[in-house]
Amino acid sequence: xxxxxxxxxAVTVELxxxxxxxxxxxxxxxVTNIKQNGHNIEPMNNxxxxxxxxxxxxxxxxxxxxxxxxxxxxxxxxxxxxFSGTIHICNWHPLLMTITFIYLxxxxxxxxxxxxxxxxxxxxxxxxxxxxxxxxxxILGIWTGLNSNLIANPPIPKFYSLHSWLGIIxxxxxxxxxxxxxxxxxxxxxxxxxxxxxxPYHIIFGILTFVLSIITxxxxxxxxxxxxxxxQNEHMPTEGLFLNFVGIVLIAYGxxxxxxxxxxxxxxxxxxxxxxxxxxx
Length: 281
Hints:
Layout: H1 2-17, E1 21-24, E2 31-34, E3 40-41, H2 52-77, H3 86-90, H4 92-109, H5 111-114, H6 120-151, H7 162-186, H8 192-231, H9 238-262
Helix pairs in contact: 2-4, 2-9, 4-6, 4-8, 6-7, 7-8, 8-9
């Protein structure tokens, strides 16, 4: 009865004010957003969503496993890392690209799912910061791949494979997403109607870019397997088997990320301003 009385008073105040407001629940454990249509939306923590913490833990473990697997592959089968010599420089390319365009990219696009009670303004700034790190270290990873081709003796042709072509497309799409997102959602003079119109396309192209980065990485591993097979024509080398396994895990990782993104129960709760908020929230 006390709860019903409290809700009745809250709704009455809402109708009298004629605007959206946040009203604390009786036990003050969470905040209930009361909208103009009288519906209550209680933002939930991740531990309150069935299965989310488990699937998020699996997502993080797989991501860390991928980075460690690539590092061990390059350290054991490809003579490690360095800043001199074609192989040592080239080895930075798959490691940096896995860290940036796979792991950091996945965490960036899931950032709004993982921190539900943080203000949208802070989340957008953090999202942009992660993307900035991807740009910086991604450029370094691209440079190591191109530079190793140039210093090889004889020089290795550039942009001859499907992996390199899709890599260029992925980078262009990512930079376009980064630039358009920065202007659309962080520039204060952009109107709310424009933000709401751009948001669905920003999400869709973000998912497509991530999926394309997964495909590009798998093709890159396939190239390395082919090179390994050229050294051992009769039998599948251990390196090839290892990379096949890593490629399968990489695909599973991409499927898991997309699943978390599109599952309705895992989406961030609606706010009074809708899915797109102004820069002061």
